[in-house]
Design brief:
Order of helices and strands: HHHHHHEEHEHEHHEHHEHHHHHHH
Bound molecules: arginine
Strand order of the largest sheet: 1-2
Number of domains: 3
Shape: elongated
């Protein structure tokens, strides 16, 4: 229940019967939105300065309000502030304390604004720094991936499609695929920063205000690009929240994908990577176990971030214009998603620093499954001017034959090859070599060692 300094609710003259304590508990959000105290105070100070500039409040009142707000900021950051559920949310907790510190003049601070514009101003300011925080954590992951890639340009592994051996690749090229994803994540966040950067302050409850406020002034002072255009839309718009939650979901989906892959690779069946003891856990019953628990944690967390996106979409889907209490839940959702992602990014960075490819096993696995069959087909096209479809059929016949003989392609003799294509020469054995295969994938974006080296360099420059 919101009260002023005389301990009466602000709306006490209108709402005569007190809400039950159970209902008071339901409508409070202070435990969650107290996290916005700095943003709230910054917004209120700029609003107060604007009110004075526009001659809506006096110089003396302005100074008193700003003095009080700064004092409250200190109290909160020094943990000397008593948050009260009775005063519902962060806005009312601060306003109530302002009354205690400076008296009745505190009542001027809410001139020409409402909690409806106040809360989204706070949330947008918070989100701007949250995005910067997220992106610097993504940067760290990109850096660690580049480091690992740099060490593994010549590490040969099987590239998979359908989790079946497909074509040989450089392990660095594989890592660089995730660098692309994380780079896109960064850009997605940057783009959303552009879109959200419109100032809601001053649209008040939903209709704007009759006071002669200057929204351009608060826009500039609060670092927004422009004021929002429509007061009704502004107080009900949570698209920027959806963008944020979606971006977090995509980034955690990327983390989840690589985690899943690394869990598979860490299994005895694949045995393509080793994880240092720092990033595995043991079993309470099986003494031999080293489990990739943290990777599983990361994969699992994508579930809760997707859930948060769906929650917010569902909250919004049936809401007429404009503000409704339903919207209050946005902050809990947003904070949870942001904290989870930051955690995941930090954990994943540690995984990258404690991950070692099992190069021998990678090479061994890449040497099975007729992985250079496509190279053989390409060779027939290039050297013997055959249409690709015909070359594909001939190669299939060779693979079938090798399989029957229980041999790899490079274990066949030239004579055996010639049974299928008499024009083949000893060159065919170069083509079946894994490194040769990788080297030959020179098309832009392909896995050739040179391409991968260049790409790593390019991203190293970007990411400095
Ligand atoms: N705590 C509220 C929220 O987060 C602030 C806005 C309240 N406005 C209102 N008309 N009840 O949404």
């Amino acid at each position: 229940m919101v009260k002023n300094k005389n301990n009466r609710t602000i709306w006490g003259n209108r709402i005569k019967n007190k809400n039950s304590s159970f209902f008071q508990k339901i409508s409070t959000s202070i435990d969650i939105d107290k996290r916005l105290y700095e943003e709230d105070i910054t917004g209120s100070i700029v609003h107060t300065e604007m009110l004075f500039k526009q001659r809506i409040i006096s110089f003396k009142t302005k100074n008193k309000i700003i003095y009080g707000l700064n004092k409250i900021k200190k109290e909160i950051s020094n943990k000397k502030f008593e948050f009260s559920k009775k005063y519902e949310d962060i806005h009312m907790n601060i306003e109530k304390r302002l009354f205690e510190i400076i008296g009745e003049e505190a009542g001027f601070v809410h001139t020409g604004r409402s909690r409806n514009d106040q809360v989204i101003t706070d949330l947008k300011i918070w989100m701007r720094s949250a995005i910067i925080d997220i992106n610097s954590n993504i940067d760290r992951i990109i850096k660690s991936s580049l480091k690992l890639a740099e060490k593994n340009i010549y590490t040969v592994m099987p590239g998979f499609t359908h989790l079946k051996n497909a074509q040989p690749i450089s392990f660095a090229h594989y890592l660089m695929a995730y660098v692309e994803m994380f780079y896109r994540d960064k850009n997605r966040f940057k783009n959303s920063l552009e879109i959200l950067n419109e100032n809601p302050l001053g649209v008040a409850a939903l209709a704007g205000t009759s006071f002669n406020i200057d929204r351009n002034y608060t826009t500039k002072k609060l670092g927004f690009k422009k004021p929002t255009n429509n007061s009704i839309d502004t107080v009900s718009d949570r698209d920027f929240v959806l963008d944020f939650l979606y971006n977090i979901s995509v980034c955690s989906m990327h983390i989840s994908r690589i985690s899943e892959e690394l869990i598979i690779w860490n299994s005895e069946g694949f045995n393509l990577i080793n994880l240092s003891d720092k990033v595995v856990t043991g079993s309470s019953i099986m003494p031999q176990k080293k489990n990739p628990d943290y990777l599983e944690f990361l994969r699992g967390k994508s579930g809760s971030t997707f859930g948060n996106l769906i929650s917010m979409l569902t909250i919004l889907k049936g809401l007429p214009l404009s503000y409704f209490k339903d919207l209050q839940d946005d902050k809990e959702i947003v904070f949870k998603s942001k904290d989870t992602l930051i955690n995941s990014l930090k954990i994943f960075d540690q995984i990258l620093k404690n991950l070692y490819p099992n190069k021998k096993r990678m090479l061994q696995l890449a040497s099975s499954g007729y992985i250079t069959a496509t190279d053989l087909a390409d060779h027939l096209v290039k050297q013997h001017s055959m249409p690709f479809r015909k070359a594909y059929q001939k190669t299939t016949a060779i693979v079938n034959f090798a399989e029957k003989k229980n041999k790899q392609l490079n274990e066949l003799t030239l004579d055996e090859f010639r049974k299928f294509e008499p024009k083949l020469t000893n060159d065919v054995f170069y083509v079946l070599n894994l490194e040769y295969s990788i080297k030959s994938k020179k098309s832009y974006g392909g896995t050739s060692f040179d391409n991968v080296k260049k790409m790593i360099l390019k991203y190293k420059r970007h990411n400095d």
